[in-house]
Amino acid sequence: MLFRNLIALGALWMLLGQTGVAQEQKSPPPTTERPVATPVRPKASPTPTEPPITFNSVHVDGPYIALTFDDGPSATLTPKLLDLLAARHLKATFFVVGQNAADHPDILRRAVKEGHEIANHSWSHPNLGKMSDEAVRRELQKTDDAIAAAIGKRPTLLRPPYGSITARQKKWIHDEFGYRIIIWDVDPLDWKRPGPSVVTARILKETVPGSIVLSHDIHPPTIEAMPATFDQLMKKGFKSVTVTELLAMETPRPPKPTPSPAVPHATAIPSPSPVSSPPPPTATPGG
Ligand code: NI
Fold first, then answer.
1. Distance between CA atoms of 96 and 120, rounded to whole angstroms?
2. Catalytic annotation, pick one of 125, 216, 217, 219
3. 131 lies in which domain range?
4. pLDDT tens digit string along 177-206?
5. 3-state DSSP assignment of residue 264
6. Could you read off the pLDDT of 34-83 as tens digits, one per residue?
7. At the N or C end, where does the chain have fewer CB atoms within 10 A?
8. Is residue 70 flagged as an active site residue?
9. 68 with 92: CB under 8 angstroms?
10. Is residue 183 part of a domain?
11. Which residues of the chain have pLDDT under 50?
């Protein structure tokens, strides 16, 4: 009788042991399992684990925008633009081409003194998306050095010419240079020189809070368009800040009421092109 009881007890013991093992196998390792006292709210950001590297616009609470000017500095046009900005106490960001920056360090110094931001737009304006890492590195480093030599401070933003850059490049450039990649959401196509009033009308129509407005300070009609553009933007209540200031104002985007993951993103380009952000390079030689 005692013997039987012992066997039964042993069997029960084994059974309990196996159950215990089964439970352990089902549970995740204790290092990854974290008891959660309150339900975790899903974050609005599409990449909750890593902060985003690339920006076409910024979600902000307020009428803030960033005016950006590419491809300069121009010996004649950029100082004119600086005068227009200073008269209105507006701040802008200049994505400079390194070889122009090296030629006109005095213009960069003036821009910084007046509250503007200087950022990297490559040395010679090539299509970075089609270049080797080593060639891209040289383009960025030379410009980074020219900016640092002029203003005593390294840039923290890159706008790739034509908006052309691969996802892989963004990652290593961010890791190596610390740059955030700035594209745009308002493009008046001013490099096609459609006339100052058209440039103004396009910018006014497309600009919303958080917009990053693209223009070029190497085309005379663009500079001609700016007084009316600035005045009308201000009349609408917009306040212009540098891109870095705009990024610092970022607030989470509210979740969309009807998410449709099956539909491709409207700005996605289904082509072998290296461009991962709008607009396509063929449409924007300016960039
Ligand atoms: Ni450009």
1. 6
2. 216
3. 54-253+273-283
4. 999 999 999 999 999 999 999 999 999 999
5. coil
6. 334 444 444 444 545 678 999 999 999 999 999 999 999 999 999 999 99
7. N
8. yes
9. yes
10. yes
11. 1-3, 6-45, 47, 263-283
